[in-house]
Records
---
Amino acid sequence: MATPADARITPRAEDYPQWYQDVVREADLAEPAKVVKGCMVIKPHGYAIWEKIQRELDSQFRATGHRNAYFPLLVPQSFLQKEAEHVEGFAPELAVVTHAGGQPLEEPYVIRPTSETIIGHFFSKWISSYRDLPLLLNQWANVMRWELRTRLFLRTTEFLWQEGHTAHATHDEAMEEVLRILHVYGDFAESFMAMPVVRGRKTALEKFAGALESYCIEAHMQDGKALQAGTSHDLGQNFGKAFDVRFQNEAGDLDYVWQTSWGVSTRLIGGLVMTHADDDGLVLPPRLAPIHCVIVPIYRNDEQKAQVLEAAERLRKALCDVDLSSPDARYRDFLEVVLDDRDLRPGAKFYHWERRGVPLRIELGPKDLAKGQVCTKFRVDTPVQSGKAFVPTDEFLATVRDKLLAFQDALLERARAAQAADTVVLDDWDDFVASFSGEKSVFAWCHWDGTSETEAAIKEATKVTIRCIPLPGQGPDDGPGRCIRTGRPSAGRVLMAKAY
């Protein structure tokens, strides 16, 4: 079928960044908001994915005792200046409001780049005793960070996210929260996004401005680069001291609270694209697909059309009763099914839904009705099913849930295999440089001497950063060694890669 020239998806091997932009465009996920520098319009299909991400994560946050709140978009500029490292880290990205109502403001406001400061201000009003702790809040919001180079979903001036903020009586309790949320993110990425991740701790150069420590999940993209897909921060008492958030402990003494913050954003949609999409367009795991199945009726005349559409509608209704959720889920996840009865040729419909990543296509024609069967095809070939299959209708309805979940698992295994193929263990500097030549990247496990000076030198020489110091069980555990750059002693290997 002929397609417009601008509908072509550039092959990944030809131009990976352009391939990404083409897939986002052809899947109708988003487009640049050219009248607002660096921002994007998230279109209905893209926003529906974000809504599914929200629904699942919000359910998990509530299950761990968190409640949703909302804080102002505008933050007094003086608030950011109270925590020196924090304001220094965000200063280049701030958008500042200096006038309102036709008059200059007495104090400028910053459009929130994150909310630790203003939430710290209100924590100081709400917390006075150990009985007020822990305070576990989450906010679904938009933020603004003035980016010079933008890319849809991955890095835009304005983006959507959730940011959790909690206050605790002890550092141990705060650290328990940091790691709990890190694993919520990691489990979500693997179970719902079918995107394998490495869990670990950031270096001092890469940690969140104002935090004691930052933890992250790092995902492998098809070009070998890493995507920081979620972060969880141990803020220590830094913001408690900056905003005088004190409480009376059980011994009757005054102490500063221990705080955490954590978040994921619409960048996850970019990660979803770069983990699973191919040169034909988007590929969506069923647990995050806004549309799980599309039924394409096939007929030659009006009589066949009436018969096929009647049967297709019965099939659609039956599929809509299929629930993908697990027995202990806090919500039901019934299949979203589209019956595509548009006046278009079947090939045009196949093309349309393939571009949008719908996991399962069902074809239904007169011959299928006569045989009591359906023709099915998954978006990509996996061990679950390769190519088209003809299945008795009753059998199809009885097995479609299991097959969609098996397809979800197969996408995760496919992504794990791609990550493994791009993962190397390196001990020689020349091999390291060769592995990251040009735009190429790999997931490299290397020894590092633990100094920021060496970390900065590696980045300057190769554009490679230390993505994380792995948690136990997340990387090679072969003990101490020698730094790949300096030869000095190293406590263990860290994950290095080029990153988005």
---
Amino acid sequence: MKKLLRPVVVFILALLARAVLRRYAPRIVMVTGSVGKTSTKDAVAAALSARFYVRKNEKSFNSEFGVPFTIFGVENPWTNSLAWLSVVKSALALLLLPNHYPNLLVLEVGADKQGDLSRILRIATPDAVVVTRLPEIPVHVEAYASPEAVREEEFSPAYALPAGAPLIVPFDDSYALANAKRVPACVISYGVSEGATVRIQHTGFYENEGKIRGMQAAISMNGEEGTYVVRGSVGRTQLLPLAAALAVAKAFAFSPAEARAALEQYEAPPGRGRLFAGKNGSIIIDDSYNSSPAAVEEALATLSAFPHAKRRIAVLGDMLELGRYSVTEHERLAALTGVSADVIATVGIRARAFAPVLSGAHASREHSRDTVLMFDNSRAAAAALPDFVREGDVILVKGSQSIRTECIVEALLADHADAAKLVRQEKKWKQKL
């Protein structure tokens, strides 16, 4: 029954969402890509809120359901029939009654399968597009003919731009940069390499009172350089959303000072490199929102560079939705895992490939049953790891959404009240455990 009703519901939502957009005509900034969309969406919304009445997607609701929910300004009704009626009621109220509607929408858009973005683009047409990283092996590749097909779909919102409209692309991503040349848009780039319009330099950890509190970097825009800090999260990827937001602000003619002031309160979303105090004096890097090869590489680089660590522990769950690339990508990252962590805890069958073998590049690192731990699922890991960690440990926790590695983070927290700051804490998610 659900499969039969889904197309009908999607059609009704799209019809109502298009009507709402026609009535209020807000400007639309669309955020697309494979890695870092939600953080970028949040940073862009923070920057533009200095001048606009902004609405953005809640969490990562970026699908053909989530985008209409954002347009209507409603929460995800999940399976609640009365809540679904409320969604329709809210949409009709927007169409029939006077409303103070946002004059700018920041819409994160995502694709799980071929054609998802084309359906969203039939609902909303962007006035500006922000592209995040499009890696060699993207997530959801199992649902596509090739990685190139995923990247092409994720870049497709740029093709819907009017001529001369802003297109913000990552300068360090060769695919995005090459495709941008085919679009008659006003291209603004961001990244760490020389030549980026908005450039990140001097990246490092932000320390306060002798403790790591976040990330900092110098970011230049319009010839002006300022120091920017992301508090509460670590990893170079936490700074890219700020640079992308500054690029959007530039496109909207913000001064660097205005954009910088608007971004001072930005925080990375839950599950994206967030720092927590762990049991027994440990430190947790909570990267439990999702996982993909590119994201694991960045997370391991962060763990490897984290200062003052006595032991670096990588708790890595399966990377899902990789299809025929699953085995090779898990094995490829094993070498990086071996040199980045002193202890490796794998969660799930596929993740066992993360544990390096005692041969070749890994022969110099001696592994034993105390340094390679294997768990079938997150519940087993959550039960065992709290007694294993000790003072000075830095623990990276990462895994695909379905692996639910946030359960491991919750078990490791020194203060259980911090559980409210983790991903997937809603009642509906908890019921799926």
---
Amino acid sequence: MKKVIAILISCSLALAASAFAQQDEQQQKPKKQRAQTERSQPENAARPAPQPRQAPPRQHVETKAPSHEQGAPQSSESKSKSHMTKAPQKERVNANANKEQTEQREKENNAAAESETANKPPGPAPANEREKNEREQAGGAPGPQANKPNVQGNKLNAKVNKPDPQTVQRIKTQHESFRAQAKPDKIPAATFNQNYRISGAEHWQGQQYQVFRSYHPQWHDRNWYHSHYNRVELIGGGYYYWNNGYWFPAWGYDSSAQYYAYDAPIYVGSHAEPPDRVIADVQASLQEMGYYQGEVDGLLGPLTREALTAYQSDHGLYTTAVIDEPTLSSLGMS
């Protein structure tokens, strides 16, 4: 009987020793796997933070194994769960490493592209911009309107290149003895119409424009004009009378000499300078600024009125298309 008991005790001790050996082997296996995983990762890959160990779930008293069975080998189901827990962690580590490598490559590519763009010479401008620049450099769009003043293209230059006092004095000196000549073949003469009114004058506010708002042509003989005005002169093919800073067409004074390029008052100031001389001064000044491209002839023809309109529009004046007090003052010639 004692021998049987001794044999049982020996078997139990052998089984316990075998269980402990297997448990040690199972504990060493995860460590080897982690070491292999770390060696397989890139050197610049970020190492994951160590995962906190979770306490093993508590077992019920009824299912707790005897002390000599705690060292028994793990079942296949436990091994499978352990492998499934470690696999996602490895995948996350590899994904993070690949993401960082991709971001690094993108940064390097962007830096290379920026460097190439900075060192690359500028290419040709778009076709529409080239055409615009060519038109501006040429002073206007070529074609059927080549003989027409390029008012739109010269606005900016006009504001910058406004004549200085020295230029104005030079222009005035140049035209001291200027005399205009009638040109009915180039600039058709205006015709008398007692119902004529200057278009848009009713909207021009201020005392300086009152004479334009109230103007209407009058037909009188020379005796009437001499009895009402002190100064009546033949200027540029027609007679004009002077009144309070303005020259007016003297319709009816002489039926053989009543050529007027434009039927409107012309402001010259208190010195009563001849209107053709003042018109020539204004034409030359507008020509200096690029508004007027016609001939300096001392006549208020269509090209001169168009240039006046553009200049007045650019400088915040009423577009009267004629020489008025604000326009002459803006040109420095009043």
---
Amino acid sequence: MSAQPASRYARLQSGESAERGRAARKATPRSAHGEWAPAPRRPDPVAVLAAQAASRVQELVPIRYGRMLVSPFTFYRGAAAVMAADLAATPDSGIVVQACGDAHISNFGGFAAPDRRVVFSPNDFDETLPGTWEWDVKRMAASAEIAGRDVGLPAASRRWIVEESVREYREAMRDFAGRSHLDVWYERLTASELVDRFGGTLKGRGRIEFARPFVNARRKTSLRAVKKLTERADGKLRFGHVPPLLVPIRELVGPVDAREQSAFVQKVLDEYAQSLDADREYLFRTHRFVDMARKVVGVGSVGTRAWVFLLVGRDGQDPLVLQAKEAQPSVLEPHLGASEFANHGERVVRGQRISQAASDIFLGWQRSVGLDGNEHDFYVRQLWDWKASADLSTLSAAGLHAYTRACGWSLARTHARSGDRLAIAAYLGGGPAFDRAIARFAAAYADQNELDHRRLAEAVATGEIAAVGGV
């Protein structure tokens, strides 16, 4: 596909046709997805990462490399751009969905819907862009294989887990193909349904570990963020100073005029508020700004600009902690064409709203001039709103099997909202041919990922790049 014009893949397509899927299967057999080998002129993975780092906060980039060095799995989490380039050379059906762009299994999790239920879904859309659905499936499947290796599962168990996660995607898509678009649009997976449906066969401690993140999710609120991230000075609440992970704005800009800083922040927040629906803008404006800090987040995202805003409501109570995360061009864009949105924060928000059955009520975007004097795009959401993420290292083979099946189902629901689910279902078919092909791909790509992780370690050891561990 890399030799084909990117514009072919740049937009979502209307219409539904099972015949289209069957025709695509003839052009690109399902077995073709099982084959993968590095291209003769495959880019150096360290060079790909370094190119990404050029637009990031340079003092934070070594933290990113340090986090990616921890294991092949953490390397994979940060290497979405590396895999995007690799996937561009693989076969695909040509059927476009709103792709997540970075659908590894640690980017699935729980969050609060507006009706205050915890729902499970892909929850990271930094790289979202219209694109072929197979790329998401392959990234998810390879991450399951790599996670299995990370916890020491044998090859047969890993293959079973990958095939089962892809089977869940395939069967869910075929189910969605038989339902109305409204039914698909309303469909969601709550935490309780997830535990019962996918973790129902787990016993004892295995079921407890599987359910724990979703039970504990309700504790992760703005109030808890205030307790963990703030301090009081002269009776006033403000963000603490925990460099380099949390650095208040006062430490970054020095003794600037307080009124100038306040005016700048208010302009940022006003521009963000305009991206919200009227009712949510009203709710947001019942809070007033207190403080702002730069925060290091994630693995692959480290070095992009991320800010947290502390606001309070009535009588200085009712805290609200928002995160503004920089949105740079999607790693898919060099291969699939540029986004239709001039603001990458809007690209992320629009893609997330299409893909998720529910999203944060404060999800919005804005553009502002940064400390470097350049404009940057951001998307904004609550820092914590019942966020739940599984600790994959604690899961047994059965637990990982249950979790990755939930990921497969959720990814199918995400794709069915925006793409031609009839065509995808017809392409997949009723048998396991596609499942088995993707399992072969996942194993081959996991081998390459280990080589890439080793290449990063060598680059750090020889001083080609700098890495900082332990943060």
